[in-house]
Amino acid sequence: MIAIAVAVAGGQEFRYSKIYPVPDLSFYPGVLTGLDILQQMDFEPLQGKRIAILCNQTAVNHNGEHLLDFINSQWDITVKTIFTPEHGLFGRQNEDVRLSGKEDTDPVTGARIINLFGRYVIPPKWTLTDVDVILVDIADPGVRYFTYVTTITKMMETASRLEIPVIVLDRPNPIRGDIMNGPVVRTAYQSFVGYHLVPIRHGLTVGEYALMINEMGWVKNLARVDLTVIPMVNWQRDMWYDQTGLPWVPPAPDFDTLITNLVYTGTALFEGTNLSVGKGTDKPFYRVGAPWIAGLYFYQVLERQELPGVKFKAVSFTPHQTHSSAEIPAYLGQTCNGVEIEIIDRETFDPLLTAVTIIILTEQLYPRQFSWNGDYIDKLFGYDLLRTFVAQKKQPEYLPGRWTHDVIRFSEFRKRFLLY
Fold this sequence. Notes:
This protein has about 425 residues and is an alpha/beta fold. It has two domains: about 240 residues, Rossmann fold (3-Layer(aba) Sandwich), CATH 3.40.50; about 130 residues, Aspartate Aminotransferase, domain 1 (Alpha-Beta Complex). The protein is built from eleven helices and 14 strands. The chain has a nine-stranded mixed beta sheet, sandwiched between helices. The protein has a three-stranded antiparallel beta sheet with strand order 12-14-13. Helix 4 crosses helix 5 and helix 6 packs across helix 8. It is globular and about 65 Å long. The N terminus is likely disordered.
């Protein structure tokens, strides 16, 4: 793991983007998000506007109140459309959203709801023809595999074409903003789970990421948008999310805790293999196994690696279909043997080193049974380095050094976009 301390950037001037000036709230004992700041300003940037909102269940203020529950009380703001990313609005869809004809409708705002991970990936023009401003408020897990930033990019693409301003409300990177890890995506391997040229663990906030995309012209056809970022107050780059004082709202299914978010940073790579990552059990992302693995022996081999910040235990588990997910888990109904991950020191735990070590050892111990999930591993990892490394039968401890240069270069590149 490569941790790089970064000085707070201030006074930046950007060509295509603006950073909204915020009041001095340093006396407040915790972190205030962009949404909290917008509330402090009585929604001034949105007054008199017809708006669209891109959000999910994470768009809450420091009191845990959801944006959609109180923005309608602002008498001079009209919410026309609500866009949702992958996984939708979760509980709000289950309990609050009603079906009106062929459209979902939010009963609080009366706005139509459009999901941007399914039938639509790019917002249709008709959903924005009566909109003056697009507001974005989504907590990103800080991991490149996640599609939320890709969806934000697609929104920026449409906003640029229709000349609609975009306001992004900033939120913390839950797994710290001073740690970067993993290879940068190669252009030939860009996909929805690796849309931009950043490491797997990029250390950016949502606002910084959007700023980088806009200034660099990473939207399709080098398009830029009239972007405004409303920053946070009191956030420091070395903060874990549980040090911010903000309520934890799972950014995705099964992300019940911050540690799950951290573990996922590495174990999501198992989705590119024929290993089970524990989906369909009560420990998704913490377990890895398969019916053809000898669990106790595999545990003993893994323990000898002495990986930092983590310990393992041999387990057997049987994946089942859950009501909350339409996804069929690997090895449904079959008994899998493997290991369960327990983090003993999050400061030293390296989720990527841990994950690639498990993958490499599995291939070495079970070369006939182990296989890749097509080229999906390359899309997750960023290019074909991991598959090549495994094919060459090299030892796992030598792999992180192969992406060190990527991390150093990205650390320098991103400095101009850091807001904290």
